[in-house]
Amino acid sequence: MVRPKKRRGSRRATRCRIGRRISKYGKKIKGTFCEATQTPLRAFDRRSFRWKRSRRGRAWLLIGCPKYSWQPQKNTCSTGTKVHKILRRVT
Q1: Interior CA angle at 26 toward 25 and 27, to 5°?
Q2: Is pLDDT above 50 for 7?
Q3: Does 3 score more than 80 pLDDT?
Q4: What are phi and psi of 66, to 5 degrees?
Q5: DSSP annotation of 4
Q6: How does 62-73 read in b/e, with b if 16+ C-beta sit within 10 Å?
Q7: What is the pLDDT of residues 8-64, one digit of tens each?
Q8: For the chain, what is the largest distance between any 2 Cα atoms, rounded to a whole number of angstroms?
């Protein structure tokens, strides 16, 4: 009899920080927030990271261009950006 493989849970890491500043990637963010990693750092080109505010303004998104899609001469991404981290405010 063959056992079915167990499904693994989500590998997305979430950690909450209270009253600290984040100054990674050139942006200083104050306050209490939870940081959730969506895609691993190794999947992005390091020159392409940008901070973007969510539509409702409740979270900060760290977006980047996938590897081999960044065009340094034009400073653009040929395939579109993807989310690396989400910083959500905790009230």
Answers
A1: 100
A2: no
A3: no
A4: -60, 155
A5: P
A6: bbbbbeebbeee
A7: 444 556 666 655 556 555 667 777 788 888 999 999 998 898 888 888 888 889 999
A8: 58
Cα-Cα-Cα-Cα torsion 39, 60, 9, 46, nearest 10 degrees, comes to 20
| Secondary structure of residue 25 in the 3-state scheme | helix
In this structure, what token pair is assigned to residue 73?
Answer: 């001469």
Cβ burial of 19 (10 Å; 0-12, 13-18, 19+) is exposed
Q: Which of 19, 15, 26 is nearest to 51 (CA)?
A: 26
- C-alpha angle with apex 20: 17 to 22, nearest 5 degrees? 95
- For residues 60 and 47, what is the distance between their CA atoms, to the nearest angstrom? 19
CB 17 within 8 A of CB 75: no
Residue 73 gets which letter from DSSP? T
Report residue 61 as tokens: 């998104």
Q: How far, CA to CA in Å, does 49 sit from each of 3, 4, 10, 44, 67?
A: 43, 40, 24, 8, 12
